[in-house]
Every structure is written in C-alpha cells, then in structure tokens.
C-alpha cells in the first residue's frame, strides 16, 4: 500500500508526477466501495474501487478516497495492479500521443471549418444587415405613406362632415321654406274659399236686387198705365 505522496512512475504523463489523482474510466468488474478490503483512506474509511485511464497507467486498478465532493477527497492512492513494464508504458504513451495528435488534428480541422463557417456566416450576416437596412427604409417609407394617407383620409372625413352639415342645413332651409310656402298656400286657399262664399252671398244679393228691380219696374209700368188712362 502506498499513499498518493509516495507514488512514483517513470511514465511520460504519470499522474503521480502532476500531484493529481489518475483519470478514471467506469468498470463493471471493479467499482463501488471496497468494504471487504482492509484498506482505509486518510479519513479512515473504506476506499473506492477505480480504474486508471488516459495515462501510462491506463487499465491499472487502484483504491482511492470514496468522498463524493472533490474538496473533501484526500490524496490517498493504493495501486492494486503492478506497474506496467517500461515497454508497455512506452506503447501506451505512444497510443495516447497518437490519440492526442489525432484529436488535435481534428480540432484544428474543426477550427478551420468553423473559421470558414464563421466567414460565411459573417458574409450572410452582412447581407442580412444590408437587407434589414433596406427593409427598415422601406418600412419608414411605408409609415410615411401611411401617415400621408391618414392625413388625406382625415381631411376627406372633415370635408364629408362639412358637406353633411351643409346638406343638413340646406335640407333644413328647404323644409322651412316648404313649410312657409305650404302655410301661405293654405292661407290663400282659405282666403279663396272665403271669397267664394262672399261671392255666393253677393250673387244672392244681386239676384234679390234684380228681382226687386224687376218688381219696381212692373210697378212703375202699371202706375204709368193707370196715369195714361186718365
């Protein structure tokens, strides 16, 4: 059993040289708390089964502090599997170097593609900005035209209202004149009817006077005849 501070390795990226616990990988056969083992961490508690990964210790099993929070973990480390041979560590290191190089190449390629995509997006963004500016100008023109149209409609409504008032006044005047004419007509009709009645009365009086005149004439004629007999 060794503590983390006592660990040693001659590998190219041994975790013990960087003062960090090894990177791990899930393993179904070696996992969980090792209650059955006598190993205890610096907290004097059972250790957690782990398998190293991404180093020349890749695949080696070890025991470490079982605390879940990183700030609570102690630096206890107990290797279960023996250290790989130098040749094995070299091969593992080469494999990880190849893996890292391939990842770096992919990252560079992705960055290149991202740069090209960024340039393309910037061009499209510039195009959209110009197009948006045109839309803004068109919108402002449309708003101005709409404002002019609203003013024209408002003026037209005002003219219509004035015309309605004028028409209403004209209708009222026409109604007043018509009512006055009808009143005068009724008055003339009444006077005409009265004159007709008076004419009838005069006709009757004249007829009576004519009868009386004829009677007087007859009386005068008879008186004359009587006088002539003498």
Automatic annotation (TrEMBL):
GO terms for molecular function: zinc ion binding. Residues 104-226 form a coiled coil. Residues 41-83 form the GRF-type domain. Keywords: Coiled coil, Metal-binding, Zinc, Zinc-finger. This is GRF-type domain-containing protein. It comes from Hordeum vulgare subsp. vulgare (Domesticated barley).
């Amino acid at each position: 059993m060794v503590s983390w501070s006592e660990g040693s390795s001659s590998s190219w990226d041994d975790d013990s040289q960087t003062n960090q616990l090894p990177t791990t990988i899930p393993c179904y056969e070696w996992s969980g708390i090792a209650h059955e083992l006598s190993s205890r961490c610096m907290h004097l508690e059972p250790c957690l089964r782990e398998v190293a990964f991404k180093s020349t210790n890749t695949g080696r099993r070890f025991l470490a502090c079982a605390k879940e929070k990183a700030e609570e973990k102690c630096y206890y480390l107990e290797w279960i599997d023996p250290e790989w041979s130098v040749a094995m560590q070299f091969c593992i290191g080469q494999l990880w170097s190849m893996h890292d190089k391939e990842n770096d190449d992919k990252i560079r390629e992705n960055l290149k593609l991202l740069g090209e995509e960024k340039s393309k997006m910037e061009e499209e963004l510039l195009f959209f900005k110009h197009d948006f500016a045109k839309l803004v100008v068109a919108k402002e023109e449309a708003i101005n035209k709409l404002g002019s149209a609203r003013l024209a409609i408002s003026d037209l409504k005002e003219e219509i209202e004035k015309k309605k008032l004028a028409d209403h006044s004209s209708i009222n005047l026409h109604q007043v004149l018509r009512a006055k004419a009808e009143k005068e007509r009724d008055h003339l009709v009444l006077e005409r009817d009265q004159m007709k009645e008076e004419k009838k009365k005069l006709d009757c009086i004249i007829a009576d006077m004519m009868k009386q005149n004829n009677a007087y004439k007859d009386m005068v004629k008879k008186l004359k005849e009587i006088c002539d007999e003498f």
